[in-house]
Amino acid sequence: MEYGKIDNQVLERLSSIVGEANLHTDAPTLEKYSRDETPLVEGSLPDAVVMPASPEEVSEVLSLANDLKIPVTFRGQGTGLSCGAVPILGGILMVFERMDRILEIDEENLMAVLEPGVVLLVFREAVEKRGLFYPADPGERTSAIGGNVGTNAGGMNGVKYGKTRDYILGLEVVVPSGEILSLGGKTVKRSMGYDLMHLLIGSEGTLAAVTKVIVKLVKLPGIFMTLYVPFDDLHHAVDSVCDILRKRITPTAIEFVERDAILLAEEHLDRKMPHDEANAYLIIRLEADKEDDLYEEAEAVSEICTDRGAVDVLVADTPETQARIWDIRSNFYEAVVKARVADLVDAAVPPAKIADFMHAVKEISKEHGMRIIGYGHAGDGNIHLHPLKDRLTDEEWERKLPQVMEAIYRRAAEFGGTVSGEHGLGSAKKKYAPIALSKEEIEIMRGIKSVFDPNGILNPGKVFD
Amino acid sequence: MEYGKIDNQVLERLSSIVGEANLHTDAPTLEKYSRDETPLVEGSLPDAVVMPASPEEVSEVLSLANDLKIPVTFRGQGTGLSCGAVPILGGILMVFERMDRILEIDEENLMAVLEPGVVLLVFREAVEKRGLFYPADPGERTSAIGGNVGTNAGGMNGVKYGKTRDYILGLEVVVPSGEILSLGGKTVKRSMGYDLMHLLIGSEGTLAAVTKVIVKLVKLPGIFMTLYVPFDDLHHAVDSVCDILRKRITPTAIEFVERDAILLAEEHLDRKMPHDEANAYLIIRLEADKEDDLYEEAEAVSEICTDRGAVDVLVADTPETQARIWDIRSNFYEAVVKARVADLVDAAVPPAKIADFMHAVKEISKEHGMRIIGYGHAGDGNIHLHPLKDRLTDEEWERKLPQVMEAIYRRAAEFGGTVSGEHGLGSAKKKYAPIALSKEEIEIMRGIKSVFDPNGILNPGKVFD
Question: Where are the domains of chain B?
Answer without folding.
Answer: 8-97, 102-219, 223-333, 340-436
